[in-house]
Every structure is written in C-alpha cells, then in structure tokens.
Design goal:
The protein is of the alpha/beta class and 227 residues long. 28% of the residues lie in helices and 27% in strands. The strands form four sheets. A seven-stranded mixed β-sheet has the order 3-2-1-4-7-15-16, with helices on both faces. The relative contact order is 0.18. It binds arabinose-5-phosphate (A5P).
C-alpha cells in the first residue's frame, strides 16, 4: 500500500494549529509540513477572529503566511514568541532534531530557542533511532573561504557537499552557504554541535537539541503526540 505522505503532514500540521490561542505571537516554520500548519492557522484566524501575529522562519514562509492572511512581525520580536510550530528532517527518541533541509536553520534555531513552547510536526518517516543515519547534517557557513571551512569540518569525521541550486551555489536568506555533512550516525550530538560551532566561519548547525516540547507525528488517519 502506498503511503500518502502529504496526508500525514497535513494531519500533523492541522493538529498543531489547534494549539494556537487568541493573542499569541506564533513562530511559523518552513517546509512542506509547516505549510499545512500555516494554512490552518490562517483559516482559524479568519473563522474565529483570532488576534495573532506570526514570526516567519524564512522568506518563503513569510510569503505563505501573508497569503494565508496572517500578519507578520520581524525577528526583533523574538523575545516574545508564545508558540512555534516547525517541521524537522529527523527526530530521535530524546526529541532532538536535525533541521535545515530547507535551508532556514539559522532563523529556525533563533526562533526555536526564544519560544515559550516549541512544537515539531513530522510524518512517521522522520522518526529515527539515532540522528544522522539517513539525513546529512546541514551546516550554514560564511560564503568566504568555503573550501577551508569544509576541510575543518571534515576533520570532525564527515564528508561534506556544498549545497547547489540549479547549478549555482545555494544561498540562504542570510546570504550564506550550506554544507550538507555526512557524519553517519551521530552518537554524541551535544559534543558535535559544540565542536562545529567552534570552527571559525561556521554560522550555525542543524542540530536542535533539548528544545522540543512536543512532537506531533501525523499518520493517514490522524496523529500521535509525544511530549
Ligand atoms: C527548513 O530549513 C527545515 O528545517 C524544515 O523544517 C525541514 O527540512 C522539514 O521540512 P519538510 O516538512 O518539508 O520535510
């Protein structure tokens, strides 16, 4: 039987949107799962007359939110985020994450760490026993001296690939580049995150540790929640 991944993502996103309350500042995630949460938040805002504002994690999300009728405020309001809803590329049993498949990891991490509540929405394929086994870790780096920065990162025990976009270097919303790093299974994510962030030229890494309050795993019939 084929899996309807879009339905799984939609069920996760729609469920997460139920946690939005009147008066909230809501962090809005990036990607193909977060888009369903944004759609539903927009619907609820109209139908229930909710007074909410969104802080987008990317320019793509900003456009999507405006289209859904959600008013947007800038990241300078990041100390006032009540709830953030975002997707993930991998989730481990401790609710640690790999993120950044969509290239928005820097803003996503700032917003995640400044939210009172952080809800992650995924389809079941994202649930893994150990991070890194099936998804390369995205690392945002300065666009100067990429090869030198890549060499330093490779010394930590990985192979790196610079992310491309239609034959050109991929650029994040912040004007930086992304290295996708194949570390294999990451057994000590805290140590790796620390070591990566000590390399000059590394802006941020896609390990989101100890930040998730709830994981909503959409399935074809509904969802499961894990706190
Ligand atoms: C964006 O940079 C990412 O962190 C996304 O949140 C993540 O890649 C999940 O995206 P999907 O919901 O599209 O799989």
């Amino acid at each position: 039987m084929s899996v309807d991944r879009s339905q799984q993502k939609k069920n996760a996103g729609y469920r997460a949107a139920e946690y939005v309350e009147d008066g909230m500042v809501v962090g809005l995630g990036t990607g193909s799962t977060a888009k369903y949460a944004i759609e539903k938040i927009g619907q609820r805002k109209k139908e229930e007359n909710l007074e909410i504002v969104g802080i987008p994690t990317s320019s793509e999300t900003e456009k999507r939110a405006k289209k859904a009728g959600i008013d947007i405020v800038e990241l300078d309001h990041a100390d006032k985020i009540d709830l953030t809803i975002d997707g993930a590329d991998e989730v481990d049993p401790n609710m640690n994450l790999i993120k950044g498949g969509g290239g928005a990891l820097l803003r996503e991490k700032i917003i995640a760490h400044n939210s009172r509540q952080y809800i992650v929405i995924v389809d079941p394929s994202k649930m893994v026993d150990v991070l890194g086994g099936s998804f390369d870790l995205p690392v945002e780096i300065l666009s100067l001296w990429q090869e030198g920065i890549a060499e330093q990162i490779e010394k930590l025990g990985c192979e790196t690939k610079i992310r491309m976009d239609n034959g050109k270097l991929y650029k994040t919303d912040n004007g930086n580049n992304i290295l996708d790093c194949d570390f294999g299974e990451i057994n000590d994510p805290e140590k790796l995150a620390e070591r990566l962030n000590c390399i000059p030229g590394v802006i941020e890494n896609g390990l989101f540790l100890d930040v998730s309050d709830k994981i909503i795993i959409g399935n074809e019939k509904g969802f499961e929640e894990k706190c």
